[in-house]
Amino acid sequence: MKTTIQIDFTFEQVLSLVRQLPKQQKIQLSRELEKEVIDSKLSKLLNTFKSDELDLEVIEEEVENVRREMYEKQKH
User: Fold this and answer.
1) Cβ(9)–Cβ(20) under 8 Å?
2) Cα separations (Å) of 2 from 5, 6, 9, 40?
3) CA 17: distance to chain centroid?
4) In this predicted model, what pLDDT tens digit does every residue of 10-62 receive, in sequence order?
């Protein structure tokens, strides 16, 4: 049986605990925090561009248009 306890810490208390960690654990913690921030930013970015108006057919059509334009420019 697991019991969950929630303890409220201030930022200063957490920082003090982190400073007591060995260097390798600080690096590991830093990487984990970085992943969390990147995941959060990526999710936000993906939500920004989320659209029901775009589908694979529309994307492929646009890609072909761009390719055609690039090909025409290379010919001249």
Assistant:
1) no
2) 10, 13, 22, 29
3) 27
4) 999 999 999 999 999 999 999 999 988 888 888 888 788 777 777 788 888 88
